[in-house]
Structures are given as structure tokens and as C-alpha cells.
Records
---
Amino acid sequence: MANVEVRHAPSAIEVAVHHDDDTPPNLDALTGLPSADALRERLTDAIEHARSGRHELALLCVDCDDFKTVTEVLGREHGDEVLREIARRFSRQLEENDTAARLEADHFGIVMSELTDPDEAASLAGSLLISLVEPIRMEKCQASLSASIGIAVYPRDGGDADTLLSVAADTVARIKRQGGNAYAFNRP
């Protein structure tokens, strides 16, 4: 559950945002991350690469828990600022060959294309959750968040992008039913 506190932040974070109508279609205009379509393309390419190299890859689907509360209490502008900060925090956790994208609203996807062990995906998921522990400070307010992260691994959970996305999303739903603020692999 999102813990939203509205109070004066000791140090406000200034965020300059420029919404450009010329944002490339493969980028999310709000966060600057690749779009959902771009992630699907990246995932498809990574599956082909994994198939030919006979190695695994992981898809992490991240859904911020109770994000609606943030926008209801703080407003849409602050909600957008929170999403931009989440994108920055998640991007800092990635390896060079990983790809993070904003799928929609408060949902993010991450492709780990060169997985040597599924535990690497668990480690990244844990790092993503930890990155949300520190409240996101804005002018005169702050937001504390948690997330639910579903992990799908190629080839064991599916052989194409749609299947992996579905498996990871179903895993997120299961985590949310159990209270959220956790990560999990698909269970057979």
C-alpha cells in the first residue's frame, strides 16, 4: 500500500520537464524511457538472440502498489514527477544490456537480455524494491512507494514476447493479491 505523506520536504527536488510534441514514438514522453512498443521489440530481439545463443533472459514487470493514492492525494503533476523519479531510480539499477520501459501508467518493464542465472533477475528485482524505500521528495510534499514485480524467464516461462509479458503480468497480479511490495517468479 502506498504511504503518501503531504508535508514540507527538507530539500525539494527541482525537476524541469519539457513535453515535446516531437517525442519519438519509441519513447515515453513523460519519463523518456522506451515505450511499451519499443520494449516489445527489444524483448522479441532478445528472445531471438537468446534462442541462437542458447541462454536465458528475464522480463520483469513492475507495478507500483496503490499509485492511484499518490495522484489522488498529491495531484497529477506530482504523480508525473513521481513517475519520472521512479524511471531515474530504476535506470540506475540496470546493467548495460538491460532495457527499462514504461509500459503504461505506473507499470514498467525491464528486459535482462544476458541472463546467466535466474537469481540475477531476483537480485535486480530486490534492488528495484530497495530503490523505492527512500521517499520521493517534491516541493512541499513527499511520496513513499512500494511495488510488485513479476518475473518471467525465457525459455522456461514462454518462447515469445506476448507469453512472457502475460506470465509476468499474471505474477504481478498474484503478488498484489498477497499484499504487494514483493517480487516473484512464475510458479508452475
---
Amino acid sequence: MRSAASSAGSNPSPSPYLETPRFLSLVRYILARGIQGLGWKLDYRKFRVFLEEKYAVRKLYMFMGFVPQYAAMYKDFQEWGYVLVFKPTLPDDKGGVKGNCDAELVLQAMIDLGEYEKAVIVSGDLP
């Protein structure tokens, strides 16, 4: 794991509120369902900027099931700085699709363990 002192010179934190300049965020697309369930809308471009400014997020993963007709949306996410990780989709009991991304999120956190000092994990799975 890198220390704040060793990485501070090469990657200064954009936020004056943080002591550790390297953060990794793992975000799941299912967050949208949780947000919509509350009657809110999430601007993913602004959310990316917020995470970078507030938490100094350097790498932002988004895990989701791949649905071909959303290719333009995936391109937007990539242009906004998200690293997309796709899973095959399965039909859910409501006629939609599900990507089952839980294990991928945990696996990626472990793969990148030496790349960050703190992780911000956002998930929309509600009980």
C-alpha cells in the first residue's frame, strides 16, 4: 500500500480536506434504482465531479450488467471518467435484467488493494 507521503509528490490531492491523496471508488449502476426509489434523480457527471472534489477519488469503477441498447450511455459514462465493468445479464422476476455485480465489486477491491489507501463504496442495493 502506498503511503500518503510517498504518493503526495506525484499525485497531489485536489481537495484541501484530505490527508490521503489516493482514493478508489467502486460504484454500482444499481444505485440508480435506489435513488429512483426515493423519487430523486442522480446526475452521474456531477456525481463524478463531487466524488473527485470531496473525496479525491482517482479511479471510479461502475459495475453493471451489459445491455447492448445502452451503448451510447456507456460511452457517456466513460467520457465522464468512469471505468466500466460489465457482467452478463440475467432476467429478473419483474421482466427486467440483473447483472449480479456484488462479487465483482469485492473482487476488484481486492485486486486493487495496493493501489489505494481508502475506498469509497456506493451501492444501491437496499434490503
---
Amino acid sequence: MIGSKGGGVSNKLMTQIPHLIHIRDFCHCLNLVIEDSLKGFPAYIIQFIRKVGNYLNSGQRSQHFKEFQISKGKKCLEVLQYKDERWTSLLECTERLLRLWDDLESFFAETPDRTFHCEFSDPEYKVYVSLLNILVYRLTNSIRSFEKSEMLFDEASRKLRQTFTIYARMLLKAEKQNMEFHEVYQLVFHKLDEAENKNLIADANEFQITFNNFQPSFEASVKKVHEYYDKKRSPNAIDREIYGNARNFISQILVSMKKEDRFPFENKVLNSMEAIYLLKPFDQIAWQSLAKAFDNIITPELELKFSIDLQNFNCKYKSIQERYLSSGMSLVKIWEYLSKDNQFPTLSLLAKALLVIPYSTAPVGSVFSEFRVFKTPYRNRLSIQNLQASILVEQAGGEMKTEMIERYFTMWEPEPQEKEEGINNQPQKEKDDDTNISVKNDNLPELGSLAEVNNLEAEIREEFHVWIAPQLNNLFSQWIGMKNNNQRSFLNNSEEQKNRIYDIYPNSDLEYVRLEGSLKSKPNKPLVLANPKPGIMKPKTSLSPQNTTIDISGKKGEDDSLRFD
């Protein structure tokens, strides 16, 4: 999509649309930084991590290692496979290897072929795996932060600059450790030993001291390598090799992060956006450059109004900034507040448009992953509405609440329509071919006012939760338990079962269930309530102990129906 020499799609779009900005995905770019840095790391360590993961992820070997952990009274953990396409895979694999290192060493010592026994017995392998874990930790932690949609663009940009600064300080002399981003970004890191950097970049010995101060436990691990090789290799040669690889790895991280157009460190428009975040002193030039860059928002007709708003905003900037910093309100709410009462309409318009600039597409990709959890091959006919509802419930978490159950009674009802003049809108009986619920009681008088109907429905809900719902669930479970040959029919059941649960009405091919109970009788005439969703039971009536039945039918096809009465 990007191409080279201005031939990519994004380059052509930016040529035709001046206010278009191209921003690379921060997560993907940081993963590319890790891949570039691994090219200078000992290749046999990367191959070791891959091979161990592949070897122990076969079914039989994985089961043997699990049984070994159980026999030792350890928690069963699997060795993870390293996948290049997964952004956090390398850190997760190294963390798991280090956690299981002693168990794996014992396990491979007992295997017949003693595969990987030499590698796990050699402390140098463990030192390099530990070193790799240390070096990629901050990069991977930044990726995990960018995968979430909890930050605005300025927060993500600051975290990216902070990551670069911390890696750069690891290469600097001790007296230069306080250099800020704008200072270290100007340094050249692919030529560490050149004369121009001697007064800033630490040499090999100084880097070793700085790195050990940064990670004290690492020095103890290196000493174990000294003891293991004792007279075969000198300690100085081991230190030069290990710390030299670490130094080159960090250098390659910085070089890769400074690649052209990889990160927007030098993008003037994005740097001018700091004015809308209300953290720095008022910058009129930055606001003017933003208005010029986004002329689709601040059109020529709004330029005069924008200049007046900018002057008024300058007068009140300090009080607005103090209020924002002390209130704890989000920046979005602050600009929403400033747009009210026509205070700074053009500035708010520009600021709110720029606040939505993304820094990663990972949150969007995670939504598609959530879809696959619910819409599986076995649920491929799940409707869009139900899929959305499943996602929202999963994101909200928690158990089903009473409000959700109460909402069930009204969620399918049509919205009330306003009465038209000159037309007598009488309540009509709802009809539905798929599902209907009717109450039949010849002894019940007519309904009174609308208030009485509402009171009746409130009592019905209470009775439904207390008595009717458990009874219906029990009867339905018995009906399901008696079905024969996976058919929703009970015609093949014994007469004793039929008589025990059902009353078969004469001259009818429908089956009924009679519910009896001691419920209060309500003055009511036959009432029919419709449900627009087929197959969903919606009891919304009260039952009396005499001569009262519930009629629930739901079509499942042309000839297949279920009716309870």
C-alpha cells in the first residue's frame, strides 16, 4: 500500500488530498524493530527457542512433560512456540522458558535420547535467553499498551519517545544519562565507535557497568558462565561476547526506530497537535499551522472566526489549563465543554477532529477475534443483532441482573404511536402467527382503567418469577426428556406419560399442558398478547386456580409447532 519512490497508494492519495496524514501502526512497527534487531543476535539462540517449542508441542512429548511435572509436584505449564507473526510471542516464549528451565533440564536428562540436555545444562544458553528477555521486554510492553484503545495519540506518542530515550540512555556515558529525547534523537547510533560520539557514547567497559546497574541479577548469571567454562574460555572474552551482543542489539533497536517514516517523530503536523492537549504553554503558531494543514475543517469561510476564537482562547488559556489539570476530567470532555455556549466553536471543531487520530489498528482486529468466539461454524446462522448483543454482554461482563430479566417483557413491544386527531384509537388485539399467549377465563369481568392494567402486569411479573417460570422450565425439561428419535413430538410416548403431563383435547392435533396453582384471580376478560419473535415464550398474564389456561405456541416450521395451554 505504501510502495517506494512515491508510487504507493498512500503516497498517491496524499498527493491528491493535501490534508491526509499517513501514520503507520505503532504495534506493527515495533514488531519490525524487534525483527531487525534479532538479525545481529546469535542465531543459534533463536533456533534453540524455536526448536524447543516445536519439539515439546507434539502430543506425546507434551503429555510426557506434563506427567513429569505432576510427578515432581509442579504446576503443569506448556512450552510456548515462537511465532514471528505474533507481536508478543518472543517475550512470552523467553519468559516461559526461564520459568521452566530447571524442570526442562531435569526432564531432558531423563529422556532416552537426551535431546537438548547439553543446551539446558549450559548456563550460556540461559544467559542469552535471559538477555533476550530483558532487551525485548520494554518494546513488547509498549506493544501491549498500544493494543488497547485507552490512550489518546499524544499519550501513545509520549510512550514511544520514552521507549526510545530509555534504550538510548543505556548506550550513553554515566554523566550523560539525563539527556532528553530531543537530544538523544540527534545522535548517530549505527557508528558507536566513531570519534564524534566518543564524548557521549559509552565504550564496551562503561556499557557493561551501566547494564549491570540497570539489571543487577544479570551479572550473577554471567558469573555462572565463567565458572562453567573455567579454563576453557577467559572471563574477559565471555564478557566481551555477551555484553557486546547486548550493545549491538540496543544499537540496532535505535537505528530501526529512526528509519524514515517508521514513526512520526519528525512529522511537523503531528508535533503541532500538542497544542490541543493543553499540557504545554499556549502556542499560537502551532494552532495556525493545524488550521492551515486541515483546511477541510477550518475552511476559508471560518478563517476569520478561527482567528477571533484563537485570540479569546489565548486570554483564557491559563485558567482553562489549570482547570483541566486539576479537575481530572478527560480531554474529550474538556473540549466538549469548551464547545458549549458558543465559546470557542472553531477551535473545538478542530480539536475534536484531531483527537480521533488512531495510532494502531489492533483494537479493531481484536473485535473480529471476539466475533469468531461467538459466531462459530456451529452457530453460523447467528443474526447480527444477537451477535452484537453477545459481544456487548461479554465486554460488560458480570452475571445477568434483574434489570435484564425485567427488560425481557418489553424489549419486543412496538414503540407507542401518537394518536391522530379525529380518529378513535381503540386498543386492538395483537395477532401473531408465530407465537401467541392467551388467557381464557369466562368468569373474569372486563378490565378497568389503564392504571389497573399496569398494576396487573406488575403483579404478573412477580408471580411469573416466583411460581410460573420454574413450573414451565420443569415441564419443558420433561417434554425434552421424552422426545423420541430426536423428534419434537411425544406421540410415541406411553399413554401413562401423556395422561400424567398432558390433557389431549378432542378433535385437535395440538397438545396442551394444564397448569394448576393457587394464584390470585384477577378481574379480567380474555387477553391476547403477541410476541413478534417466534419461539420465545412471553407470559404476561395472571392465573387463577379455576378454569384458567395459558396458551403458548411457537412455530418451528410449517408442520412442527409447540403449544402449551
